């Protein structure tokens, strides 16, 4: 009843058998999105409400839902105003950025901007999948409609001023700690490389002296 038409999408046409749906008379999801299916329009879009991937969060957590058409300037202006300390008013301790589909990249960008504006933030990242249902209706026949079921990737990023569990998958320490750890490893590697290069330069000289 629901043939696969595009990786993460399934089209259901009420009143048709599987053989009829697989025929060329029914538009595919690619044709619907590109506007090639003349006479069809999207009338409904319902996203599945996914559970919070960070159980046990205290009250007062700022939740930022990032959409594909959201403006980063507006999102960050709202979030920064509530996370930063303002005079005698203390800012919030935690914020969660959530986005799905094409908004995943914008969600990551928002989190990275806040980490650079507010130092010492601990990060926890979780990846999920959520279901989406779209209803497309024929403009020529009001009784004809199609339902498209899709699966979208979703990302949730928790930024906290308070320490988080470092053993939890997806944890990332603050930038200062991260740079110190990586900086020590890089400096150690560079020292080894410089020592090796100096030894290799000294070897030809030692051979000339022996000759």
From TrEMBL:
A GO term for molecular function: RNA binding
Keyword set, alphabetical order: Nucleus
Main location: nucleus
Region called Disordered, residue ranges: 163-211
GO cellular component: nucleus; ribonuclease MRP complex
A matching Pfam family: Alba
Keyword NADP: no
Alphabetical list of InterPro entries matching this protein: Alba-like_dom_sf (IPR036882), Alba-like_NAB (IPR051958), DNA/RNA-bd_Alba-like (IPR002775)
Name used for this protein in its record: Ribonuclease P protein subunit p25
Organism: Triplophysa tibetana
